[in-house]
Hints:
It comes from Pseudonocardia adelaidensis. Pfam families: DUF397. Residues 38-79 form the DUF397 domain. The chain has a three-stranded antiparallel β-sheet with strand order 3-4-5. It is globular. The protein has one helix at 68-79, and strands at residues 12-19, 26-32, 41-45, 51-55, 64-66. By secondary structure, the chain is of the alpha+beta class. It has one domain (7-79).
Amino acid sequence: MDHVLPLYDHPIVQRRGGPLSGAGRELEFVGREFCAVGDCLEAARLPDGRVALRSTLTPEAPHWLVTAGEWAQFLRTVKDGGFDRV
Protein backbone atom coordinates (compact mmCIF):
# COMPACT_ATOMS: atom_id res chain seq x y z
CA MET A 1 0.00 0.00 0.00
CA ASP A 2 1.34 3.43 -0.92
CA HIS A 3 2.00 5.87 1.87
CA VAL A 4 -0.23 8.93 1.52
CA LEU A 5 1.11 12.16 2.99
CA PRO A 6 -1.22 14.19 5.19
CA LEU A 7 -2.35 17.31 3.33
CA TYR A 8 -0.08 19.60 5.36
CA ASP A 9 3.02 17.55 4.46
CA HIS A 10 2.79 18.18 0.71
CA PRO A 11 5.37 20.62 -0.67
CA ILE A 12 4.49 24.25 -1.21
CA VAL A 13 4.57 25.24 -4.88
CA GLN A 14 4.29 28.47 -6.85
CA ARG A 15 2.10 28.75 -9.92
CA ARG A 16 1.92 31.68 -12.30
CA GLY A 17 -1.47 33.26 -12.60
CA GLY A 18 -2.99 35.71 -14.97
CA PRO A 19 -2.46 39.41 -14.46
CA LEU A 20 -4.67 41.30 -12.05
CA SER A 21 -6.11 44.51 -13.42
CA GLY A 22 -3.80 47.34 -12.45
CA ALA A 23 -1.11 45.08 -10.95
CA GLY A 24 1.07 45.45 -14.06
CA ARG A 25 2.61 42.00 -13.71
CA GLU A 26 1.71 38.34 -13.66
CA LEU A 27 0.89 37.08 -10.17
CA GLU A 28 2.77 34.27 -8.40
CA PHE A 29 0.26 32.17 -6.48
CA VAL A 30 1.38 29.95 -3.61
CA GLY A 31 -0.40 26.68 -2.82
CA ARG A 32 0.28 23.07 -1.98
CA GLU A 33 1.37 20.46 -4.51
CA PHE A 34 -1.79 18.37 -4.04
CA CYS A 35 -3.94 21.35 -5.05
CA ALA A 36 -3.19 20.78 -8.73
CA VAL A 37 -5.98 18.17 -8.73
CA GLY A 38 -8.27 19.41 -5.97
CA ASP A 39 -10.26 22.41 -4.86
CA CYS A 40 -7.82 24.52 -2.88
CA LEU A 41 -7.13 28.12 -2.12
CA GLU A 42 -4.01 29.78 -3.52
CA ALA A 43 -2.68 33.20 -2.50
CA ALA A 44 -0.54 35.86 -4.20
CA ARG A 45 0.86 39.00 -2.54
CA LEU A 46 0.25 42.23 -4.48
CA PRO A 47 2.77 45.10 -4.56
CA ASP A 48 0.51 47.22 -2.31
CA GLY A 49 0.40 44.51 0.39
CA ARG A 50 -3.04 43.14 -0.41
CA VAL A 51 -3.45 39.42 -1.06
CA ALA A 52 -5.26 37.95 -4.09
CA LEU A 53 -6.96 34.60 -3.48
CA ARG A 54 -8.24 32.11 -6.03
CA SER A 55 -9.67 28.61 -6.23
CA THR A 56 -7.63 25.99 -8.08
CA LEU A 57 -10.83 24.73 -9.72
CA THR A 58 -11.58 28.11 -11.31
CA PRO A 59 -8.27 30.00 -11.51
CA GLU A 60 -9.61 32.20 -14.31
CA ALA A 61 -12.48 33.51 -12.14
CA PRO A 62 -12.17 36.94 -10.53
CA HIS A 63 -9.82 36.94 -7.56
CA TRP A 64 -10.95 37.69 -4.04
CA LEU A 65 -8.84 40.54 -2.61
CA VAL A 66 -8.13 41.06 1.09
CA THR A 67 -6.05 43.67 2.87
CA ALA A 68 -2.72 42.81 4.47
CA GLY A 69 -4.36 43.19 7.90
CA GLU A 70 -7.25 40.88 7.02
CA TRP A 71 -4.82 38.26 5.72
CA ALA A 72 -2.64 38.51 8.85
CA GLN A 73 -5.72 38.12 11.08
CA PHE A 74 -6.90 35.09 9.09
CA LEU A 75 -3.47 33.43 9.40
CA ARG A 76 -3.35 34.13 13.16
CA THR A 77 -6.81 32.62 13.59
CA VAL A 78 -5.85 29.50 11.64
CA LYS A 79 -2.59 29.07 13.59
CA ASP A 80 -4.46 29.55 16.89
CA GLY A 81 -6.90 26.77 15.99
CA GLY A 82 -9.83 29.04 15.29
CA PHE A 83 -11.09 26.84 12.45
CA ASP A 84 -10.29 23.42 13.95
CA ARG A 85 -13.98 22.52 14.36
CA VAL A 86 -15.00 23.56 10.84
